[in-house]
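Input.
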Amino acid sequence: MEIFGIGTAEFLLVALLILIIAGPRRSAVWAREAGRYVRQFRIAWQKMMDEMTKDLGEDGQQIRKAAQDFQRVTSDIRRATSAPNLVGEAVKIAEKVEQNRKPTTSATTERDEEASGADRYSAWQYTPDAAETPPADSDTDSVS
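Output.
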């Protein structure tokens, strides 16, 4: 809750300070007077809005409705693009992807790894024949 840039904690702090400074009797009187001013402000605001609606007529109603629709759309966009909402949507998508994955059995995976492992690493395996015989095209004899 934020009113005129004042959050709930600040409002409670101001109310506590008023209670301490004014005391319980005067702060009750001040609260009553503040309530009267708020009520008068609301009545004046409503009268002004009624007069504007009356003066603008049908076109004013359409403009007011368009402004309310625009405000609703911008609020929806702001809510949809907020960081907590985006993170929540990403988590939901990740959960759906995880649920749609096909489960593989461990026996099938191990068998596939063993079969492909022999082919994959055959070039790196030690063979005694290759180590003992030098390559046929080497020029090692002419260097010494």
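The CA atoms of residues 90 and 126 lie 48 Å apart.
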